[in-house]
Design a protein that fits this description.
Elements: H1 2-19, H2 26-46, E1 48-52, E2 55-59, H3 61-64, H4 70-75, H5 78-98, H6 103-134, H7 139-150, H8 152-164, H9 166-169, H10 175-189, H11 201-218, H12 225-245, H13 268-283, H14 285-291, H15 295-306, H16 308-326, H17 342-366, H18 368-371, E3 385-387, E4 396-398
Antiparallel strand pairs: 1-2, 3-4
């Protein structure tokens, strides 16, 4: 039985591999998949819902154990996602324009894949929040849950705005938005201190840096390994200096109760750290292309890309569903207890397979919002074909009769 399962998996992977165009840059899909999974694992490792009496509130192990900050260096991978997004968007827009596709048609196609799954998330949590309030749940608890569930939407809004601005960003050099981030932080943290709202300028400017790096990749300006090394070493050194001597937090994600967050809104340290990540991603392209020639590895990456938005949107809901279900058994270590010691870290690691299972349930229930419903009277294809239009780099699933 086990042999037949393995054989079936290998045959399916071989079909996906054979259906992929030879000219496809599989490293792009691999980087996108790793970026999405990095964000998911990062949130699961540094987000705790602590049961305090009859209420739930968020906490982070990074507050009581700041020496765990390197975890955020590994799993805060949004810069890589924006790098790939900028590369795919600019390449796709250039190709669409060459084919005579209008900007409106191109943008509609790009954004529909992003926002179709959002409707299901909003509908479910509207109903869930109303039901919790009607059954007597504390307003603070409901607020915590809804805020956590909808937190991925900020990313989609920023990403959609940058995608819509792609025609204006085709030739924008990354140094321009990086300079904006630098001056915003100088006004915020230096020169006597500026208004806190000024930092939100970096919400666009900060993520513009990796996005425009993606455009430079499309233009062929980042093909050599020198560019990757300059970004990696320069970004790492700049980040180390900012943390050591300029007072920036070592954690690259927000920590509850901290005076300054590197991510909300992005700081200069978060942007320079993102430059280092982008440099590493560029240096790994050749290795990833080689690794993706293996059918099993490529099939796994293709599956993540096909459901990227579903995974991203529902991973926090999976965490909360597991937490709420676990409350029926009492306050469980690593799930409801305060994240203030290594015992919590060990327990949370043990919960990761359960969280993955909960996410798989969410994926099975809501993935059709991303892929579209099956046609009536049609049998699902036994082959998933991964393809792309000319030079777009987009991944799609095509189900035949």
């Amino acid at each position: 039985m086990r042999h037949r399962v393995r054989q079936g998996i290998r045959q399916g992977a071989d079909r996906v591999d054979a259906a992929t165009p030879a000219e496809r840059d599989r490293a792009v899909d691999a980087l996108r998949a790793f970026a999405i999974l990095g964000v998911v694992l990062g949130h699961w490792l540094v987000t705790a819902l602590v049961a305090d009496g009859g209420a739930l509130h968020t906490a982070s192990p990074l507050r009581d154990m700041p020496w765990l900050a390197p975890i955020s260096w590994v799993f805060q991978t949004l810069a890589v996602f924006f790098l790939v997004g900028g590369h795919v968007a600019t390449r796709g827009y250039t190709s669409a324009r060459a084919r005579g596709t209008t900007y409106r048609q191109w943008l509609t196609a790009r954004l529909s894949r992003l926002f179709k799954p959002v409707a299901a998330l909003l509908a479910l949590w509207t109903v869930a929040a109303g039901a919790l309030l009607l059954t007597g749940a504390e307003v603070a608890t409901v607020h915590t849950l809804v805020k956590l569930a909808l937190s991925p939407l900020w990313f989609l809004l920023v990403f959609a705005a940058l995608t819509a601005a792609t025609p204006l960003l085709l030739r924008l050099h990354p140094l321009w938005p990086l300079t904006v981030v630098l001056y915003v932080d100088l006004f915020r943290f230096g020169l006597g201190g500026g208004p806190s709202w000024l930092g939100w300028v970096n919400l666009a400017a900060g993520w513009l840096v990796p996005f425009t790096l993606g455009a430079a990749w499309t233009r062929g300006e980042l093909e050599g390994r020198r560019a990757g090394w300059v970004l990696l070493v320069g970004g790492a050194v700049a980040t180390a200096l900012l943390v050591a001597f300029a007072g920036y937090p070592a954690s690259m994600v927000g920590v509850p109760g901290a005076g300054v967050s590197n991510l909300n809104p992005p700081t200069l340290a978060a942007v320079t750290f993102g430059l280092a990540q982008c440099g590493l991603a560029l240096l790994l392209r050749d290795r990833l292309r080689g690794a993706m020639r293996r059918p099993l590895a490529w099939a796994a990456v293709a599956l993540v890309n096909l459901s990227a938005m579903t995974i991203f949107l529902w991973h926090q809901t999976a965490l909360m569903a597991t937490t709420a279900t676990g409350l029926l058994a009492g306050r469980l270590p690593g799930l409801h207890t305060r994240p203030d010691g290594l015992d919590w870290v060990v327990a949370r690691l043990a919960w990761l397979p359960v969280l993955a299972l909960a996410l798989a349930v969410c994926w099975a229930a809501f993935r059709h919002y991303e892929h579209g419903p099956r046609r009536a009277g049609k049998r699902p294809s036994r082959v998933i074909r991964v393809h792309r239009g000319p030079r777009t780099g987009d991944t799609e699933a095509v189900r035949g009769a």
